[in-house]
Amino acid sequence: MFRFDIPHFPCMQHFVKFQKWPRSNGRSIHDRLWMVSGGAQFGAARELRGPAMKVHRYLTVLVLTSFVLIWYYILRVNNGIFTGLGGLGANSSAALARRGLGLRQNAPSNASEIAIVVVACGERHNEALNMIKSAIMFNRNQSPLRFVVVAEDQLKQNFVEKLDDWQEINDNIFTYEIHSLTFPAKDKDEWKKLFKPCAAQRLFLPSLLTHIDSVLYVDSDTIFLAPVQELWSLFKTFNASQFAGMAPEHEDKNAGWYNRFARHPYYGDLGVNSGVMLMNLTRMREFRWEQHIMPIYREFRLKLVWGDQDIINILFHHHPDRLLVFPCDWNYRADHCMYMSVCEAPDGVKIVHGNRGYFHSLVQPIFNLLYTTVEEYAFRTDIHANFIRTIEDSLALPSNSNCDKLLDKFLQDPRKYFKQNLYEEDT
């Protein structure tokens, strides 16, 4: 006998029992249906035949299928974090990690994993996916990656579908987890809208990601052109007091924003840009990072132009010993090349930051070209032919853009790592 309990609905207050009866006199006797309510038998047993039996079977299958789908969705969305089951035990985080599926919030990070965090709101989810794609493309040494996505609820399913596909194509070289936006209850709406939608979320990563020791935070409008493990290795150069690493906001005092316009303190001579940020979350929690952030916001809230980045600059103005400044090639922006080249990047551009919409305009064509070429790239096809050559051919003609003239700097790392075909072309 098989028994299935149907959840309570207004129109359905019973559970259903099915019992298969043997054939008799060479003729199949149909399943018999009893409805039981409150432990008492409901009605008399009645044999259902013909069309009536088919209708009952159809409705029963429909109800059970709906229940299973609803229950599956509930399991997929748990405490704001998507958790892929894939036929594995729901409590087996190690098995989930092997399958490369989303992990629960209390699953500790693997020390060998490189954790990359991105925040996505509105239309930014396409940029965030493109950033993730570029990190996978240039993961030359096949280091285990963990992508941590913090997103609006309506965007979560888009990430799950795309990342699940990419996991299968790339042999589960990465895991991922998806979190809901989390801001302090007090002034929640103000924090969410500070500067750009959800940008301030990075300020609260230490309390959101308590299960992770260190992360690389990147804005959604970034593209990797080099293996992320090169930047990740800078964590080893932190001294005992440092818990964050960022690149300067400017390289030239004549063009600097903070030294000319800021109405609040900032780090160093030119400030720092928070679009690419190494964060030792354990040390930040020990420092009581968020307790330092709140009073800064209350004091300077009417003087903040760049939102959370200004808050970060104010904090490191008062605590410069806590920050490691890394070179501009890890946060390369149009400001570095649009008028004149002010970022030397002797080893090539490592991360391109298309802030202020440069990925989506033709003002500096190479930024748009890098973004769209990554977007159009198909995994497991030749990167040299379908990325490097595509960009080279597109910029073969002379350009008036100063950034376009630095093509060799943008392609220095891709050319170094992808001289030969890595994969056979799909047929």
TrEMBL record:
A GO molecular-function annotation: UDP-D-xylose:beta-D-glucoside alpha-1,3-D-xylosyltransferase activity
A cellular component term, taken from the record's GO annotations: membrane
Domain of life from the UniProt record: Eukaryota
Protein name per its UniProtKB record: UDP-D-xylose:beta-D-glucoside alpha-1,3-D-xylosyltransferase
Cleavable signal peptide: none
Catalyzed chemical reaction(s): 3-O-(beta-D-glucosyl)-L-seryl-[EGF-like domain protein] + UDP-alpha-D-xylose = 3-O-[alpha-D-xylosyl-(1->3)-beta-D-glucosyl]-L-seryl-[EGF-like domain protein] + UDP + H(+)
Enzyme Commission number(s) of this protein: 2.4.2.42
Keyword Membrane: yes
Main location: membrane
Protein topology in the membrane: Single-pass type II membrane protein
Function: Glycosyltransferase which elongates the O-linked glucose attached to EGF-like repeats in the extracellular domain of Notch proteins by catalyzing the addition of xylose.
Pfam families in alphabetical order: Glyco_transf_8 (PF01501)
Family: Belongs to the glycosyltransferase 8 family.
Annotated InterPro entries: Glyco_trans_8, Glycosyltransferase_8, Nucleotide-diphossugar_trans
Keywords in alphabetical order: Glycoprotein, Glycosyltransferase, Membrane, Signal-anchor, Transferase, Transmembrane, Transmembrane helix
